[in-house]
Write a structure and sequence with these properties.
about 0% strand; about 375 residues; mainly alpha; Cytochrome Bc1 Complex, Chain D, domain 2; binds heme C
Length: about 375
């Protein structure tokens, strides 16, 4: 019998990771009502400094400090800047874009900026043009590591860790074949794998994934299959926080081996002042002192991640201030100085929230946009505002 009691734990761990994954693929809308109007455009080359200041205050959170694009598209883009006249840029900024997170900025549309302000911003953006790269939107590069994360949440409960099979049901019968199998990978091409994954094999118990996974997630799985075909070992992309959660869950169930497994995977990518706790917790688990280890691991899990508030301030101003205000006074986003939410939440909770975002609001998830360490730095900075 192959680790039957581990099975339910892995399903749960998988589910938790799946929730985080799915949240990171959801889109947020900030509805804006809109009227289009003719706009007169006049250049004011003396207003670049004013335009830059307004851009930094209002636009960097979505379009990036150098106009490279984050939630919003790149503005530092030769293709866009050659195609769009000053009048078109002015109108886009003045009226915003309905059903997207791009707010209306013109006072006539309920925004905060005068026509003169918007002209100044257009001049500032126009100044990017000379050296702007050509940006091709929506370029997606499949990633085997992301594929492994998807596999670790959606597939390994049946197909086994690393796709090696070996998961048996109560009767001791293997529930699904190994996917990471050299002979099968050689025999079948990716078109076949994609077809099986998207359409499933319902009669045999292989679920249909086409409606659950996005096209990009399926492409990530194809990248994983390519890597397996090349004989590579692919580690899932998981955060330290997720692995601490899994270690905690395992230890709570009395499974020290699994807990050590997750601790050992978390430690090499962990950072900051709490790093030294990893060793002492692992040592306690190995010595069978599970109660002491669990207390320490609970504290570590809730306090994680701890970052550097000085770095966090810069990141906050670049990434969050556009909606939450440079002084945390709020705006499109909620007030951060002070914030009851931050005060009442552990670092782990604020981290999970910023990673996932809040569905149906302009608060998008930062998974894949900011690293765990960068979010930790921002949270450390937000803590200062609560003192
Ligand atoms: C809350 C996020 C957000 C903020 C803040 C924001 N934008 Fe946008 N912006 C977007 C999104 C999203 C789009 C793309 C909308 C769409 O899909 O049409 C966009 C589109 C644009 C476009 C049109 C680009 C194109 O490809 O046609 C311009 C120009 C623009 N924004 C300028 C600005 C300026 C200037 C500011 C600051 C005054 C600003 N934006 C602030 C999210 C934002
Ligand atoms: C609920 C259990 C279950 C889950 C979860 C599951 N599968 Fe399967 N899968 C099966 C079973 C059972 C088969 C065998 C079908 C058969 O007998 O031909 C299978 C077959 C396959 C095959 C064909 C393998 C072969 O060599 O014939 C592929 C590829 C596959 N699954 C990929 C995936 C991927 C990718 C995921 C995650 C997105 C996944 N499966 C999730 C049960 C599962
Ligand atoms: C595009 C605008 C936007 C950006 C950029 C943004 N937020 Fe938000 N944020 C919001 C909105 C809107 C809400 C409130 C969502 C709601 O209505 O529940 C929010 C809510 C929050 C909350 C919860 C507050 C509460 O009281 O519920 C936190 C914490 C938070 N944001 C942190 C951040 C951090 C950290 C960043 C930068 C990494 C960031 N936000 C960037 C728009 C934004």
């Amino acid at each position: 019998m192959l680790k039957n009691e581990n099975y339910s734990k892995q399903v749960l761990t998988g589910l938790i990771i799946t929730l985080v994954l799915l949240a990171s693929f959801s889109f947020m809308f900030l509805a804006e009502t809109i009227r289009l109007e003719e706009t007169t455009v006049e250049h004011n080359k003396h207003s670049l400094g004013h335009g830059r200041a307004l851009y930094v205050e209002n636009c960097t959170s979505c379009h990036g400090t150098r106009g490279e694009g984050i939630v919003g598209p790149a503005l530092n883009d030769k293709i866009l800047l050659e195609a769009a006249s000053d009048g078109v840029l002015f109108a886009s900024i003045q009226t915003g874009r309905p059903n997207t997170t791009m707010p209306a900025w013109g006072q006539a549309y309920g925004g905060a900026l005068t026509d003169e302000d918007i002209h100044a911003i257009v001049d500032f953006i126009r100044a990017f043009e000379e050296n702007a790269p050509e940006v091709h939107a929506d370029e997606f590069t499949p990633s085997a590591a992301r594929g492994a994360s998807i596999f670790a949440s959606a597939c390994f409960t049946c197909h086994g860790e690393d796709g090696l099979g070996g998961i048996e049901n109560a009767e001791g019968i293997e529930v699904a074949p190994a996917i990471n199998d050299a002979a099968a990978l050689k025999k079948n091409d990716n078109a076949w794998y994609q077809q099986v994954i998207v359409n499933g094999l319902p009669a045999t118990g292989m679920p249909i994934w086409g409606e659950t996974l996005s096209d990009n997630q399926v492409q990530d799985l194809m990248a994983l299959i390519d890597a397996w075909r090349a004989g590579e070992d692919v580690a899932p992309e998981a955060t330290v926080a997720q692995m601490l959660g899994s270690a905690h869950f395992s230890l709570e169930q009395g499974d020290g081996d699994n807990a050590i497994f997750y601790m050992n995977r978390a430690q090499p990518i962990a950072f900051g002042p709490l790093l030294s706790d990893f060793d002492s917790i692992s040592t306690d688990i190995e010595a069978g002192k599970n109660a002491a280890a669990l207390t320490a691991l609970t504290e570590l899990r809730d306090a994680w991640p701890q970052g550097d508030p000085v770095v966090g301030e810069t990141l906050y101003q670049e990434t969050c201030s556009g909606c939450h205000g440079s002084e945390g006074q709020g705006g499109v986003g909620k007030k951060m100085q002070p914030s009851e939410f931050v005060q009442e939440s552990t670092n782990a909770e604020v981290f999970a929230f910023t990673l996932e975002g809040r569905d149906g609001t302009a608060m998008q998830g930062y998974s894949g946009i900011l690293t765990e360490e960068q979010l930790a730095d921002i949270i450390a900075f937000l803590r200062i505002w609560q003192e």
